[in-house]
Design goal:
Strand order of the largest sheet: 1-2
CATH superfamily of the largest domain: Cytochrome c-like domain
Number of helices: 9
Largest sheet: 2 strands, parallel
Number of strands: 2
Strand content: under 5%
CATH architecture of the largest domain: Orthogonal Bundle
CATH class of the largest domain: Mainly Alpha
CATH topology of the largest domain: Cytochrome Bc1 Complex, Chain D, domain 2
Radius of gyration: 29 Å
């Protein structure tokens, strides 16, 4: 009787483990490499190892390579797909880069041209206007400058300071 009870407990544990893996499988984002990850990586361990922390591309390459050496079977193409999938979905979040601002009331024509991606004539027109009319107070003031593409100014308004 105890032997059958142990089998029942083992069966229930396996069922519970299977349900955990199935639930985790549903949590995986769609993408190339997902199927290989599900079919290959879960042969030896659950997906909780993947969810535990984010890793860089180099770290994922090292881990997946260790798994291959340890017996995980996947082609080179599948290896590449899995590493890309893991990096994309379980890599560190990229922090947005700080936007370089330019003070349009102090910048030279060359600086305006470079930072705002203006033509030399547009940048020179801004400097001339500033010298003739005084400091700009907001980005809309720059749209009054004759010969400057207003769409360019609007597209770069987050980079402007006064």
């Amino acid at each position: 009787m105890k032997h059958n009870g142990a089998k029942l407990i083992a069966a229930l544990a396996c069922l519970g483990f299977g349900l955990t893996i199935a639930a985790q499988d549903e949590d995986l984002p769609e993408g190339k490499g997902r199927e290989t990850l599900q079919n290959t990586c879960t042969e030896c361990h659950g997906l909780d190892k993947i969810f535990s922390e984010t890793r860089t591309r180099g770290q994922w390459e090292s881990i997946v390579n260790k798994m291959r050496i340890g017996g995980a079977t996947m082609t080179d193409s599948e290896y590449t797909d899995v590493v890309e999938y893991l990096t994309t979905h379980f890599g560190p979040e990229e922090k947005p880069k700080a936007v370089d601002k330019i003070n349009v009331n102090k910048a030279s024509a060359m600086e305006l041209e470079s930072v705002l991606e203006l033509t030399s004539s547009e940048a020179a027109a801004i400097v001339r206007y500033r010298e003739a009319h005084g400091a700009f107070k907001e980005w809309l003031d720059l749209t009054k400058v004759e010969g400057v593409d207003k769409a360019k100014i609007e597209a770069k308004k987050a980079r402007l300071s006064f």
